[in-house]
Amino acid sequence: MEVIICPNAQRVGEVAAAKAARIAGPIGPKVVLGVATGSSPVQTFAELARLVDAGELDVSEASAFALDEYVGIPEGHPESYHEIIRKTVTEPMHLDPSRVHVPNGFADDLAAACVAYEDAIRAAGGVDIQFLGVGSNGHIGFNEPTSSLSSRTRIKTLAARTREDNARFFDSIEQVPRHCLTQGLGTIMDARNVILVATGSGKAHAIAQVVEGPITAMYPGSVLQLHQHATIVVDADAAAELSLADYYKETYANLPDWQRLDV
Ligand code: F6R
């Protein structure tokens, strides 16, 4: 696991985007992106869009797969993840909408929609770069505590804490759906690279558990300790409970030139 501690959220976005661009370059324009919603990756996606517009990143034939979607919210709803991905990823990066996929939380047959989603990821050749945020309870995607570490895309019940955290996007907590479709932890682990971003003190405990705690379904993001190419980019507040923060900083400050991110 590579842990990069940045002074602020803006820098987190720049470093995460630079890391992604470094990986995407050799893959070429057909790179397959795994994309998250929520506030965490917004700066990263904005920076990626800037790199695209500057001609420094070619995603002209890229596909994208969202991590999750609420059940029962129609596609055009402002809080549907279809809509959020359209605004934060598809349009700013000029992706072809037909190659941007979000689980269908409005399907009549939700279980079949989950199987179809796994099939679509496989048919695209798998995810090259998976962007992740982390919930304050340690979830990635909507894999809530006690999720199977080898789970695939499926229906999940949102934890009370997640509904409380996400109530800020709705008029009231009653409007936050109780169910979602989410890529599983096994699905996420199949991505060839993962980049998790987190900012703010509300994520400090989850980040410490994910990075330095035991691998446990109680903090589902901790499964990333088993991933060969996981990068965790956090600001100083989200890093506050990391016991090896000095080591991560020293490591990053002394990277050899060929590993440096030019940001
Ligand atoms: C969103 C997702 C979630 C969020 C997490 C953090 O697609 O999969 O795991 O990344 O809940 O949300 P924010 O970034 O809003 O704090």
Compact description:
This protein is α/β, with parallel strands linked by helices and 263 residues long. 32% of the residues lie in helices and 16% in strands.
Name of the CATH architecture: 3-Layer(aba) Sandwich
CATH fold-level label: Rossmann fold
Largest sheet data: 7 strands, parallel
Tally of distinct domains: 1
Q: Tally of extended strands? A: 10
H/E order of the elements? EHEHEEHEHEEHEHEHEH
Termini separation comes to 20 Å
Relative strand content:
15-25%
Unreliable residue runs = none
Assign an overall shape: globular
Biggest β-sheet: strands ordered side by side in the sheet: 1-10-9-6-2-3-5
> What would CATH call the class?
Alpha Beta
Q: What's the mean pLDDT score?
A: 97
Percent in helix: 25-40%
Helix count equals 8
Q: Could you walk me through the main structural features you see in this protein, from its secondary elements to its overall organization?
A:
The protein has helices at 9-27, 42-53, 81-90, 110-123, 160-166, 185-189, 204-212, 245-253, and strands at residues 2-6, 32-35, 63-66, 68-70, 100-101, 129-132, 154-157, 179-182, 193-198, 230-235. It is of the alpha/beta class. The protein has one domain: 3-Layer(aba) Sandwich (Rossmann fold), CATH 3.40.50. Strands 1-10-9-6-2-3-5 form a seven-stranded parallel beta sheet, sandwiched between helices. A three-stranded antiparallel beta sheet has the order 4-8-7. Strand 9, helix 7 and strand 10 form a beta-alpha-beta unit. The chain is globular. The chain starts with a strand and ends in a 10-residue tail after the last helix. The mean pLDDT is 97. Residues 36-40, 67-68, 133-135, 139-142 line the site of fructose -6-phosphate.
